[in-house]
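Q: Mind making up any chain with structure tokens?
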Amino acid sequence: MTSRSINTNRCFNVLDIQKIKSEAVFRAYFEHNFRLKEVENADPALTPLNEELIRIDMDSNGTRLSYYKAFQKRIRELPYYQNHSIRKNGVYGLSVVISFSREAAAAIDIKSWKEKSIGWLEKNFNVAPDGKSNIISAVYHADEPGNVHCHAIIIPIDERGRLNASRFTDGPVKLSEFHSTLAQEMEDLGLVRGIPNSHAKHKTIHKLYGELDKALSDIPQPFEGENAFTYRQRALNELQTAWLVNKKRIDNEKRAAIEFQSGLSNLEREAIQKEYDSAAIEMEEHIASLRQMESSLQHKIKILKETEQHMTQSLQWLDQENLEEIQMKLIKYEDLCKKMEFLQQNYPELSEELEQIFSKTENVFSQEIQTKDKTRHNPWRS
């Protein structure tokens, strides 16, 4: 998917970083990001479009860890904190929100934007010496029309393996660098950096609703000499006009976001269906292979059982006396073979006559053995 034309004069990156200093703040972000409580500006119909871009760790029961428990787990992994405590007034984590101005919502390649957002986070925050990620969670929120964003939770571990939020957020210069590197990351998508040192702020849907409330609260004042009926009609008309103007702005924001996310949802559903179909075929082939293997193993088990039974019978027949008899016969047989070899080399005619005699003798012997086997079972002659 390629980005459609974006007016870069108005389409900016948005970056917000906040410090987390307590378990309560971790809990508030966790409940917000995973929609465990009602979010004022979120549309429940769009919540299924939200996506966990970096999944938080699970506990032994397969339950998602809370942000605070994930923080504790990460700290326990660091050698420094095996014999050091965390400062009580220290910064435990960072909340990082990446977004873009609403004018870009209908044109931006959202898939590439999500990938670039995660790439930027990893480049700038994963500096821990043990090589593990400092990003414990990243969630894409599509259910806040006009305020689509990626919300990441960072444990600020520096190159020494210690909590050190200042390494990432110390002063306006560092934050300005973040804005610049994010702009470089998103340049291909048509998003640009805001004006350095500008006091312009990103206006969220929450603020738009606030403006609507403010407009409705600015009740017109009566004119001098105006009667109550005329004042009432004029005030109602002005308030209704203000309400309609602001409501139209919000409805347009919602409609644009819903249309955009709807198109995106169809593409994602098609991709998911293709992956599902492919996985289903692979699973069927794997099951068929396992069934064939099972059949082969059952056949081998049957053969082994039959062999075991035969060996048991043979061992019962092979007592010490029979073993000694067999050993003597083997010695005589080896001696006979040597003599036959000597005759073949030195008296071939005599050797041939003896082979004919042996052949006739073997036939007679076989007939006699068959007769005896009818009354006595011998597994060595079966």
User: Anything to note?
Assistant: The CA atoms of residues 13 and 100 lie 4 Å apart. Confidence is low (pLDDT under 50) at residues 1-8, 199-205, 378-382. The longest strand covers residues 13-20.
